[in-house]
Amino acid sequence: MAYRFRMEKLLRLKRLAEEESIRRLGQKMQSEQECLCRVRDIEGGRDELARELQHPLRGEELALVLSLLDLFSKELARALEELARLRQEVAQRRAEATRRVCDRQAFERIEDEDRDRYRKEQRQAERRRMDEVARVPVLGALRIAEAEHE
What are the distances in angstroms from CA 50 to CA 36, 37, 40, 47, 62? Predict the structure, then answer.
C-alpha cells in the first residue's frame, strides 16, 4: 500500500511539473508571436519610409532619412536576434516536453513491470504456502501408514 501511495504521489508531482512546463512553453510561444509582430511593424515603418523616399529630398531630409534607416536596421536586427533566441528557447522547451513524455511513459512501463513482478511473486508465495499446507496432511497420512505397517 505504501508503495502504491508513493508511486501515485510521484506521478502527481510529475504531472504538476509537466503542466507548469507546458504553461511556460505557451508563454514563450506568445513572446515569439509578439516579437514577430514587432518585426512586422518595423518592416512596415521601413516600407512607409521607402514610399516617402520616392520624392526628391533636401540635405536635412536626407540626413533624417538616413538616421531613421539606421535606427530601423538596428531595431530590426535586435528584434530578429530576440526572435531567434525565443525560437531556440521554444525548441528546447518542446524537446524537454517530448523527453518528459518519453520519461513518463518509461516510468509507467517500469511501474507496470514492477506491479506485474510483485503480483507474480505474490502468486508464487501463495502457491508455496498452499503446497506446504497440502503436504502436512500427506506427511501425517504417511506417518499413520508407517505406524500401521510396523
Answer: 21, 20, 15, 5, 12
- What gap in Å lies between CA 31 and CA 90, rounded to an integer? 10
- Per-residue pLDDT, 104: 79
**% the chain with pLDDT above 70:** 74
CA dist 146 and 140 (Å) reads 10
The percent of the chain in helix, strand and coil, each rounded to the nearest 5, is: 95, 0, 5
Q: What is the largest CA-CA distance in the chain?
A: 135
d(CA 71, CA 130): 87
Kindly list the domain boundaries of the chain, sorted by start residue.
2-121
| Most confidently modeled range among 45-49, 77-81, 83-87, 123-127 | 123-127
**How many angstroms separate the CA atoms of 51 and 43, rounded?**
12
The pTM for the full model equals 0.41
